[in-house]
Automatic annotation (TrEMBL):
Family of this protein: Belongs to the Mrp/NBP35 ATP-binding proteins family.
GO cellular component, one term: mitochondrial matrix
Biological role stated in the UniProt entry: Iron-sulfur cluster transfer protein involved in the assembly of the mitochondrial membrane respiratory chain NADH dehydrogenase (Complex I). May deliver one or more Fe-S clusters to complex I subunits.
Protein name: Iron-sulfur cluster transfer protein NUBPL
InterPro entries for the chain: Mrp/NBP35_ATP-bd (IPR019591), NUBPL-like (IPR044304), P-loop_NTPase (IPR027417), YlxH/NBP35 (IPR033756)
Keywords: 4Fe-4S, ATP-binding, Iron, Iron-sulfur, Metal-binding, Mitochondrion, Nucleotide-binding, Transit peptide
Obligatory cofactor(s): [4Fe-4S] cluster
GO molecular function: 4 iron, 4 sulfur cluster binding; ATP binding; ATP-dependent FeS chaperone activity; metal ion binding
Compartmental location: Mitochondrion
Residues passing through the membrane, by range: none
Species of origin: Littorina saxatilis
GO biological process, any: iron-sulfur cluster assembly
Length: 292
């Protein structure tokens, strides 16, 4: 077989689509390699926050969205799973450190700040040590962070994904009963192209794409009030027109978001009346409506 045919993007190495020519036996054999979809005990709704491109603000969005959901639906219990094994950000963003305690049934207790339960590889390894693991070990670590944790009771679990559409993303999308995926992007063409790839991956595994968050959409100069579209303009709107994916919100590029994130004080809790918080709360309302 020609090499280009072997690596054709139309091939379906994970058996996501099954060919009409396959026999039942062949389908069963292919499904054997796929992760089984299992709920997490005591967790009602799971949503993942993903992006095709790195550094577009997934973790910042996850944290602020989790806090905005908790603010908009005060009775709900919210948690965050940091699925970024190689570069966990949640400990810093949520100002959490230390090792999780073990419960009587040998499960890890999530660490809690601002009322949100969190679990991250960053709690289990030293901040400076590099994880040098291959795919299977990463997958096994994620399974543990998902299922050997005392999450219950939880109404919303937000999964902060690593960037891209690789093994980890696909496994999570296939092994968890996700209510949906939120895609984060900047308005740049290069980021938007990756969003399309992300959306395609979720559609292939039948996970509804709840919408796109356009992060760093505009920079408003704090001195003169002029708007600057540093990463381009109307990118998400174009994407939305082309794909039908809803824009959940546009988060401005703002020094305070960055500063407060670094200090472990997400803007939604640190500045609850700011315009940035209003954007995250508006996104939260849409997510609650779409995924409930
Ligand atoms: N709206 C914003 N305004 C200003 N800075 C922001 C904004 N959103 C994110 N940042 C900053 O951009 C950097 C990247 O954000 P973040 O870590 O959330 O991205 P990410 O997509 O999770 O990255 P990775 O792909 O590495 O996981 C951080 O320093 C963060 O504070
Ligand atoms: Mg991140």
């Amino acid at each position: 077989m020609c090499i280009c045919r072997r690596f054709s993007t139309h091939e379906d190495p994970f058996g996501v689509r099954s060919s009409p020519k396959q026999t039942d036996h062949q389908r069963q054999m292919m499904a054997k390699g796929l992760p089984k979809q299992r709920p997490i005990e005591g967790v009602k709704n799971i949503i993942c926050v993903a992006s095709g491109k790195g550094g577009v603000g997934k973790s910042t969005t996850t944290v602020n969205l989790a806090l905005a959901i908790a603010a908009e639906d005060p009775k709900s219990k919210v948690g965050i799973l940091d699925a970024d094994i190689y570069g966990p950000s949640i400990p810093k963003l949520m100002n959490l450190s230390g090792e999780p305690e073990l419960s009587a049934d040998n499960k890890m207790e999530p660490l809690v700040n601002y009322g949100v339960k969190c679990m991250s590889m960053g709690f289990l390894v030293d901040e400076t040590s590099a994880i040098v693991w291959r795919g299977l070990m990463v997958m096994s670590a994620i399974e543990k962070l998902l299922r050997q944790v005392n999450w219950a009771p939880l109404d919303w679990l937000l999964v902060d994904m690593p960037p891209g559409t690789g093994d980890v993303q696909l496994s999570i999308a296939q092994s968890l009963p996700l209510k949906g995926a939120i895609l984060v992007t900047t308005p740049q063409d290069i980021a938007l192209a990756d969003v399309r790839r992300g959306a395609t991956m979720f559609q292939k595994v039948h996970v509804p794409v709840l919408g796109v968050v356009e992060n760093m959409s505009v920079f408003v100069c704090p001195n003169c009030g002029t708007s600057h579209h540093i990463f381009g303009q109307k990118g998400a709107q174009k994407l939305s027109r082309e794909t039908g994916i809803e824009i959940l919100g546009e988060v401005p590029l703002d020094g305070r978001v960055c500063e407060l994130s670094d200090a472990g004080q997400p803007i939604v809790v640190a500045e609850p009346n700011s315009s940035q918080t209003a954007v995250f709360k508006s996104i939260a309302r849409k997510v609650l409506e779409k995924a409930s």
